[in-house]
Design brief:
Order of helices and strands: HHHEEEEEEEEEEEHEH
Structural class: alpha/beta
Mean pLDDT: 85
Low-confidence stretches: 1-36, 39-48
Strand order of the largest sheet: 3-2-1-12-6
Length: 244
């Protein structure tokens, strides 16, 4: 649905991370993506098989931060602490068990991941965050989340052409933002130094300024699938931090 009367803001403020970080648009081309459901001991039962009550590859610390009423998890498995390559897996809860729905190759911050994100560090924040709002340049593809279509999302034409469609579809990650507002609302409750405007958005083939990027088809699928009544969250980080 469209939210009318929203104050337009400059995309240079709303773009992923900070303006200076976004200008680089940067990161090396992705290498081959690894198994989206990692092995190891995280999420395993005492018998050695995966415990379906837990998200694979996510340790107890972050598992506890997934709200009890959440029925959908977007898991972002970063290939490494300093890598811009990652894999996104959508999980849905069936009873007490988490079921894998679909997965896609993705990119994260150009410089990798951090547990202490700050404006301009070009790293994606590790953690568990709610997903409440969506939008973009393109019309609503049938999103379940509140969706704001606004040309103000468009990347400036002085950016590299490969980045022009980054914000055609956007899902706000609730890191240092006001829930219930369009993704390009510039308000940062924890202050500018903590960064903000961390989004799921469309991919340009390399690392981002702190967001997570995927193909247009993947974004459209998530927009149509994430249901606010199921309280979706994103669990994101490099594989080592996810299991710690």
């Amino acid at each position: 649905m469209r939210i009318d009367g929203v104050r337009r803001v400059a995309i240079a403020v709303a773009a992923c991370g900070t303006l200076l970080a976004a200008l680089s648009g940067c990161g090396a081309k992705g290498r081959a993506h690894s198994n989206p459901e990692p092995g190891g001991q995280a999420g395993k039962s005492s018998a050695g098989s995966r415990d379906p009550r837990h998200i694979p590859g996510v340790g107890a610390r972050l598992q506890r931060r997934i709200p009890a009423d959440s029925g959908q998890v977007v898991a972002v498995y970063g290939d490494g602490k300093d890598s811009a390559d990652s894999t996104v897996v959508l999980y849905a809860k069936q009873g007490a068990a988490w079921q894998r729905v679909r997965s896609w190759p993705a990119h994260n911050g150009k410089k990798g991941w951090t547990t202490d994100h700050h404006s301009g560090d070009r790293r994606s924040p590790v953690g568990v965050f709610t997903l409440t709002d969506a939008g973009g340049v393109l019309k609503d593809p049938g999103a379940e989340l509140p969706y704001t279509q606004d040309p103000a999302f468009a990347a400036p034409r002085w950016w590299a052409k490969s980045h022009w469609h980054d914000f055609d579809y956007v899902i706000a990650i609730d890191y240092n933002r006001v829930k219930g507002t369009p993704p390009n609302n510039p308000t940062r409750p924890e202050g500018e130094e903590k960064g903000g405007s961390i989004w799921l958005h469309m991919d340009h083939g390399s690392g981002t300024s702190g967001c997570v990027s995927m193909s247009k088809s993947a974004m459209a699928y998530l927009l149509r699938s994430l249901d606010p009544d199921r309280h979706p969250v994103v669990v994101m980080g490099d594989r080592a931090d996810l299991v710690s």
